[in-house]
């Protein structure tokens, strides 16, 4: 399952407004608002007669900004849920790191049904 491609597609309305969405982690050279996508583990969820039926993939989406971005967080959450993801929560509350940058991580699960071959 390509969870990064699914997330990019779901977040197109944000990128069309000029918010940078990228795979990877915080880039301190980029001082403006940006959103990162970090794939976590892919896990087979359900089996039938030794054939995979449902696969899950976890994704962390993190907002980096010099100010709080609650409206953007809600928009990202809505867009990814509408794309079929399940919201799993956040690792922490809004956190300000030393460089004066706010980070807001969120975790999602994507599910993909697999046909038996």
Observed structural traits:
six-stranded mixed β-sheet, 22% helix, globular
Q: How are the elements arranged and paired?
A:
Layout: H1 3-10, H2 12-16, E1 20-23, E2 34-48, E3 51-65, H3 70-82, E4 86-89, E5 95-96, E6 102-113
Parallel strand pairs: 1-2
Antiparallel strand pairs: 2-3, 3-6, 4-6, 5-6
H-E string: HHEEEHEEE
In terms of structural class, how would the helical and strand content be classed? alpha+beta
CA radius of gyration: 16 Å
| Proportion of beta-strand residues | 35-45%
Give the end-to-end Cα distance, rounded to a whole number of Å.
Answer: 17 Å
SS field, number of helical segments: 3
What report would you give on this structure?
Helix content is 22%, strand content 44%. The chain has helices at residues 3-10, 12-16, 70-82; strands at residues 20-23, 34-48, 51-65, 86-89, 95-96, 102-113. Strands 1, 2, 3, 4, 5 and 6 form a six-stranded mixed β-sheet that branches. A hairpin with a 5-residue loop joins β5 (95-96) and β6 (102-113). The longest helix is centred in the middle third of the chain and has 13 residues, at 70-82. It is globular, with a radius of gyration of 16 Å.
